[in-house]
Design a protein that fits this description.
The protein has a domain at 2-93: Alpha-Beta Plaits (2-Layer Sandwich). It has two helices and four strands; from the N terminus they run βαββαβ. The protein has helices at 16-32, 69-81, and strands at residues 2-11, 36-52, 55-67, 85-93. α1 (16-32) packs antiparallel against α2 (69-81).
Amino acid sequence: MALYEHVFLARQDVSAQQVDALVEQYKGVIEAHGGKVGRVENWGLKSLTYRIKKNRKAHYALMDIDAPAAAIHEMERQMRINEDVLRYMTIAVEAHEEGPSAMMQKRDRDDRPRRDGDDRGPRRDFGDRPRRDFGDRAPRGDRPAREA
């Protein structure tokens, strides 16, 4: 049997419980065809880069699968039929990653550098720089209106 990573996007108006039910449904399809599903991660509701079937957001789910190709084909066939699934992608891999996926390893907000200047060097002061010279242009209020 081959190893696969499978990600699918569900519509934004389905609930998290319905996404879990979709995962269980497709897990059942894989197991019925002699495969097994390892890690399952729900990445939650995320914004899409562009609209897909009038949806601006989608629920993302990842599944690590060890199954024959026929099981993958059947699962993808059922996903094409299901209106709640916007997109899916299955990739054959050499080995499954251990631990959480890259999406689940995102740094915490507290771990990021601060934006108030504490983690940067001193700010440069531009308060005493000379004004730019605009030549012989008059100030904006004194200029005559342009003719069309």
